[in-house]
């Protein structure tokens, strides 16, 4: 069981959330052609680190907000992240 700390609702069960994926990729700027390797990497390629990973979570069955959290993938512990919302 994973308890996810929503900044607005407090710790909630993972079943209330939808995983939004890795929050670190940034869309290429100025790329006119969407079939470039930069777009391919942005859409499909993800690291699978053993350690800190910044993730997006949607509190689907709670406040309905998107949140950004840092999680240690080795322990599933959520880390206090200065970049997290709010
Ligand atoms: Zn919430």
Name of the CATH architecture: 2-Layer Sandwich
Shape: globular
Low-confidence sequence ranges: none
Rg estimate, integer Å:
15 Å
User: Which sheet architecture does the biggest sheet show?
Assistant: 4 strands, antiparallel
From the 3D structure, determine the CATH topology: Folate-binding fold
CATH superfamily: Folate-binding superfamily
Number of strands: 6
Count every helix, treating DSSP H or I runs of 4 or more residues as helices.
Answer: 1
Compile the SSE list and pairings.
Elements: E1 3-6, E2 10-13, E3 18-22, H1 37-44, E4 52-58, E5 66-72, E6 77-79
Antiparallel strand pairs: 1-2, 3-4, 4-5, 5-6
Bound molecules: zinc ion.
Description:
There is one protein chain. By secondary structure, the chain is mainly beta. It has one domain (3-79): Folate-binding fold. 9% of the residues lie in helices and 35% in strands. The chain has one helix and six strands. The protein has one helix at residues 37-44; strands at residues 3-6, 10-13, 18-22, 52-58, 66-72, 77-79. The strands form two sheets. A four-stranded antiparallel beta sheet has the order 3-4-5-6, with no helix packed on it. Strands 1-2 form a two-stranded antiparallel sheet. β5 (66-72) and β6 form a beta hairpin. The model has no long low-confidence stretch (mean pLDDT 88). It binds zinc ion. Zinc ion binds at residues 6, 8-9, 59, 62-63, 65. Zinc ion binds next to loops.
């Amino acid at each position: 069981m994973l308890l996810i700390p929503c900044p607005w609702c407090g710790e909630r069960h993972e079943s209330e959330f939808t995983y939004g994926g890795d929050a670190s990729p940034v869309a290429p700027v100025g790329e006119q052609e969407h079939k470039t390797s930069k777009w391919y990497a942005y859409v499909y390629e993800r690291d699978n680190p053993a350690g800190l990973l910044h993730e997006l979570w949607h509190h689907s069955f709670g406040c309905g907000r998107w949140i950004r959290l840092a999680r240690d993938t080795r322990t599933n512990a959520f880390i206090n992240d200065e970049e997290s919302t709010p």
